[in-house]
Every structure is written in C-alpha cells, then in structure tokens.
Queue: 2 jobs
Job 1
Amino acid sequence: MQLARKCEVSRKAFPSLFYKFGMTKKSGNSLSKFVIILAFVFVILTVFFFVMYQIFSKSIFETLAITFGTTAYHFVMRLMVGLFIHGIFKNNFDYNKKYFQERPFEKKLYKKLKVKSWKNKMPTFIPNLFNLECNSLEKIAGAMCEAEVVHTIIVIFSFLPILAAIFFGCFWVFFITSFLSAIFDMMFIILQRFNRPRILKMEKRL
C-alpha cells in the first residue's frame, strides 16, 4: 500500500518524466519470447548446416553453419549472461557504489550523442523491471545497475567470436560483426547511465 501510494504521488508529481522513462506503460514479454525463439532457431540452423557440411562437404554449408553459429552465439550468450547475473544479484546492486556514479564528462558526452533523441526508441527486454506500478524508484535504480553490468559483460563477450578466425579465417568478418554487436550493447549501457541519476533525483524529492 505504501509503495502504491508513493508511486501514485510520483506519477502526479513528475508525469512527463515517467512518460519519458516509459514507467507507466504496460507491456508484456513479447520481446523476450521473440529473442528466445530466435536463439533456438539459430542453434537448430547451425546444427543442421554443420551436419549437411559433414555429409556433403560443400563450402556453402560450412559458410552457413559459421554464419548461423556466430549469430546463435550472440543471442545465446546474451540470454545466459542476463540469467547468470540476475540469478546472483536479483537487481540488488548498490547504486551508491563509485562504479555506478555519474562521471563529470558524461553529461557533455550524452548531449553530443543526442541520447534524448533515441533513448525512448530502445527496446526493453523485461519492461516490468522498470515499471513503477510494481517497483519503487530505488528498486528500478538497482535494476538499471544490473542492466548496465549485464550489457558491459556482453560487450566484452561480443569479441570472443574473433577467435574463430584462427580456425576459419575471415578475420574482418568476425571483427566487424563483433564490433557492431558491442556498439549495440554500448547504447544500453549509455541509456542506463543516462537515466539512473534522474531516477535517483526523483527518489530524493519524494
């Protein structure tokens, strides 16, 4: 009851901010289900074309197996990292830690990157974690910290497929796909670091 009242006060006091953060929108888990299905499909396709290559020894099957295998890695790795980190911390990160504090240069950087113009267009894997109807501002800040850690680990792991170039060649193909993948997740890191200080300011004002 206390949380519900606090959330209601928050929405009335800062309606525009809650709209910008997407905290009043109800959405299901369609994105998460879609990602899981895609990961499963890419794994199946990898196995299928690998078997076809073993049987027929056609280079096209090897190429397809490597392509779908690399794609499957990026999807499965993201799911595993998210599950592993959430299984340990369950959004209970201490947002007061120095690592999560906003650096002096960040505001200028985010302005140059025009974060405000694209932040609302980014997808949310589990929207309920950032929904004020079932979470306090403090809990949401913790979820933002966890999301930042998850995407940071993913950025690092995104470059592991480059090692496959040792066996299959095509270094630049693996490098470019890994680099683009890392850039994509960097956007989510920026998003969390951009929004979290604003959430904490709101929490202090309540």
Note: The CA atoms of residues 43 and 142 lie 32 Å apart.
Job 2
Amino acid sequence: MLHLAQVAKHDTSGKLVLQLLASQKSEFQWVFCEEEYIPLNQEIDLNEGLLILVELGANHQIIKLTEAKDWILDLIGQELTNDRLHPDLIAEEQSRMEEWRRDLTARSQDLTRERLEIEARREQLQKLEEIIQNNFSLLFETIYTIRNLRAEAEIKPGVKVSVILQTENQQQQTILASTKSCIEELAKVEKLTITDGQAEPPRQAIADLVGTIQVLIPLAGIVEIEALKSKLEKRLANIKAEVKSLTASLNNAGFVNKAPADVVQNTQDALQEAQTQLEILQKRLELLS
C-alpha cells in the first residue's frame, strides 16, 4: 500500500523514522493516518522533515521509497490545469490542502515540543537519580561508621549514644540534617549534633572519618575509659611491631630483589594499611586522654 510519510526523529531513540501521514485507499482517495512510525535503515541518507512516498508490504516492511516533492507538484498541476474542475471545487481543494498543511505543521510542532519536554524530563530525572545516589551513599557510610565505632568501643547494643558530625561542607550538612531521624534510629543515636567543624572536638571520645566528615562519639559515662585505652594501647603496640617488621623487610635488598614482584607489592600494601591503622589508633588514644 502506498503512503505519504515524513522523515522524523524518534523522541526516545533519537533515530530517524518515517511518520505516516496519509495512506492511499484508491487511485483518487487518500485518508489521514493515526500516529504511526516505521523504523528506517540508518544507512539510508534522508534529511529530517523530508516528505516521502513509501510503499509498504503486508507486515509494514518498506518495499520502495520515493521523494514526494515531484509527485505533490504533479498532483497539484493536474488538479489546477483540469478544465473540468469548477473554480469553486479548485478553491475547496486548495482550502483542504491548506488545512492539511496547517494540521501537519501543528502535529510537527506538537512532536517537537513533546520531544523537548521528554529530553528536559530525562535530564531532570538523571540529576535527581545522582542526588539520591549521593545522599544514600553518604547516609549508609555515616550509619556504618557509627556502628563500627560503637563496636570498637564495645558499647552495648541497647545503649543509645550522642554523636557529633563535623563538616564544613554546607551540602553535606544539609543532607545529614534531612536524614537525621534515619541516622538516629538505625545507629541507635539518642542525640545527633551536626556542626561546621569549627568547635574543638570533645575529650574522651572515639572518632573516625566519612570522607571529609568527622564522626565523634563521646564516651564519658558510657564505657570504662581506662579499660578501652588499655585495649587500644595493646593494639597500637602490635601494629607498631607489624610496621617495624614490614619496614625491615622492604629495607632488605635481598628480599626486594629476590622475592616475586606480587609479594613485594603485597608487603608494601600491608605496610601502608598498618601505617594508616597506626595513625587512627594514635588519634583515638589522644582523644581518650
């Protein structure tokens, strides 16, 4: 069946398609089509907006494509030069064609407007998804860190604690404030304080970092400070011994030159991790003093 179509860009895929405008019912009879699109082989070089005569098979496969300009001009010429046509009929057909043109223009404008709206909404959804993902990551890591600190200080599960979150990042402060009740419930926090990090951290507290956010739990009256210090000092002594041993291995030319490269790399990684743990424990003992 022969159709009149226009080359258009699909709203979602962005690929060129044929938008069916009218179909031929008989030699002299054409009817408008409902909104329908036929995929185009992307190797076919056609400009968006071009009017096309397309012959479709029973399964709407494209059999033949022809540019419609000459056909439209020939059709208009035949109608206008046909002496048998009454002037009123010619005027009526011209009016009908103008109405058709206006309808096609309006449809094209509606499609363009809808495409722009879809693109704008897609961008908004992508930004919203990024914000939600960032907020969730910050919330999860904050709760995870508080729970780890509770375990580190051997705070009983049923005991609620006060927590101080210090950050100079205004956006992080806003996210933490908006998720405050969730943090309090999931991390068993009685009082959550969010500050800009200008205040001096409390003494006798345990601390860790979530990115640039410092998480502090004051421990006075909650745990035995001296017992916790004794435990951390033992761990500190063990880590110092580990750092000393790993450093000695890496300073040994025989080990570095003879050991497999992955063994040397693993030793370097272990030393870096031990030094990080050493620094964390020293800071925690300092806060507990």
Note: Residues 2-84 form one domain.
